[in-house]
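Lecture notes, structural biology module. Today: joint structure prediction for complexes of three components.
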Amino acid sequence: MSAENVNQKYQQIWQTVQCIPFGKVASYGQVADLAGLPGRARLVGKALGKVPNGVWQGQSVPWFRVINSQGKISFAQGSDAFEKQRKLLQDEQVVVLHGRVKLKEFQWQPDITELLHKLSY
DNA sequence: TACATGACACCTA
DNA sequence: ATAGGTGCCATGT
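The predicted structure, tokenised, for the full assembly:
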């Protein structure tokens, strides 16, 4: 696996995450699937930790809108990262209780046609 | 080369 | 709801 290929995968992931709208969340697996990388949820976490300055292509990457498939924040409760993510989510009206978000209410339901328009792969 | 380690997901208890 | 086992694969040692 060449470095270029890896970087391309990261970019697909970043681009997909940028499509998650304000006030909504997506799971790592969901992002992986939409990014054309089914079964690669763990790669999404890696990619999010590697966004240069939290920005890609002049747009911020809302990493905090990505949580696990159970609706939980994946950082350890009480950690700085955990608190930061909780705050950022609550700042956009996403309810976080016990480190968990109700996916029924807040999970992003992507519009396929809109997505095809936005994603370049 | 081998092994450990993840911002995970899925299935079974 | 929680816990353990397995699959996954890029990274780091």
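Point to remember: The mean pLDDT of chain A is 93.
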